[in-house]
Design goal:
about 120 residues; mainly beta
Length: about 120
């Protein structure tokens, strides 16, 4: 389907964040996945290592992102590029964060405990 309306988006919740999937194979996108992530204030992110490049555009709020053990403060308008193989996490402070995220279909993530997830918003 070429147009995905908000009512068609699929919502997933994991690790305290909400992922609203707009583009994925289930919605007609063969190569790309795109979603909005909403991270509540006061969230300590779950570090994960991604298998595909991810690009996040911060649309509201602020946070500290950790990318390969380097911390970066981000705010609305900033773009974060997470390379394939990068270790990534988001920690929010007093305000929540909203971001638009894009990646290629097939992304998987390794968690610190060695487990793997295939985020359902990317398939």
């Amino acid at each position: 389907m070429p147009v995905v309306r908000p009512s068609d988006a699929v919502v997933h919740e994991i690790h305290g964040a909400t992922f609203t999937s707009y583009a994925a194979p289930r919605s007609g996108s063969a190569e790309l996945a795109a979603w909005q992530v909403d991270v509540p204030a006061g969230t300590t992110g779950v570090p994960h290592r991604v298998t595909r490049e991810e690009v996040l555009r911060i649309t509201a709020g602020s946070a500290t992102v950790t990318l390969d053990d380097r911390k970066h403060d981000v705010t609305a308008g900033d773009v974060v590029i997470v390379p394939a193989g990068g270790l990534f996490g988001i920690d929010t402070g007093a305000e929540p964060l909203t971001a638009w995220v894009s990646t290629s279909v097939g992304l998987r993530a390794a968690l610190a405990d060695g487990s793997w997830i295939t985020p359902p918003w990317t398939v």
